[in-house]
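Ketose-bisphosphate aldolase
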Amino acid sequence: MTVSQSTRPHNVITLKRALETAERHGYALGSFSPRYTPMIAPVLRAGQRMNSPLIVQISSKELDRYGITPKEFADEFYRVVEQESITVPVVLHLDHTKEMAVIEAAIAAGFTSVMIDASEKELEENIAISKQAAEYAHRHGVSVEAELGMIGTTDFVETDKDEELYTDPKEAERFVGETRVDALAVSCGTAHGVYMVRQPKIDYDRLKAIRRLTPVHLVLHGGSGVPADMMSKAIKLEGGGVSKVNIATDLELSLLEALGREERMTNAECKALPADRLEQGRAAVEKTVADKMSNFLSSAGQAGTFAL
């Protein structure tokens, strides 16, 4: 299946367009990572059932770990959108990626948004790399997210660093001005993975300072496990808060719990599950996504805020 700007469904939109609407109406979009291609369907079903706009994503590291190509992921996404008559606004997003070759492959496959992550580089190099990615993506009608500061991790699925370096607002102003990225992942206290010893916190003053200096849409990675009231405050900050929240670990945990297993699978193993077990897992993932839309993101019922 080959999908281009002219042939993709009208409700599959860019991240920039999606976040502009979400921010204007005071809610955030969940950026849900199914990690396994059979779990794309329940994520989209939840969005349709809750009448919620959403983002379906996968990171470069997840592609490698679970044994999936960008085209395989995109093909299943577009198959489900078409076969299940998904009509809510949805973005297909490539999360944390360091290689331009992967970004190019994702754009060719029909992704409408990509993330370049050069956050471990010095500021000057991060700007140069992110600017190159933004220019390439924009030429192809695709949105770009980048990261400034370093977001910690607890399980190394999405990223391979556990260091954390909070985003500096003045650096953010320069970074966005020079790179022209559409969204910025900021480090302000959350982490990828499961919170065990450390607890999530959000530096609201830092978010407000970044927002005062730049109009860029803000992204919070590490949404799994953050208390709902804490997230709601970050979304509804005066002047514009967080518009995109990444949720991956919670989805996989609900899937594995429903299957009665602790170990992750490969994508091939997931696809080979008996039909009844697969449906058990899908039901759990759909329930988790619907709950996040209703009780965490305030996005349920908001599909009508888009003029598609």
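thats it. Confidence is low (pLDDT under 50) at residues 153-163, 192-198. Residues 194 and 248 are 10 Å apart (CA to CA). bye
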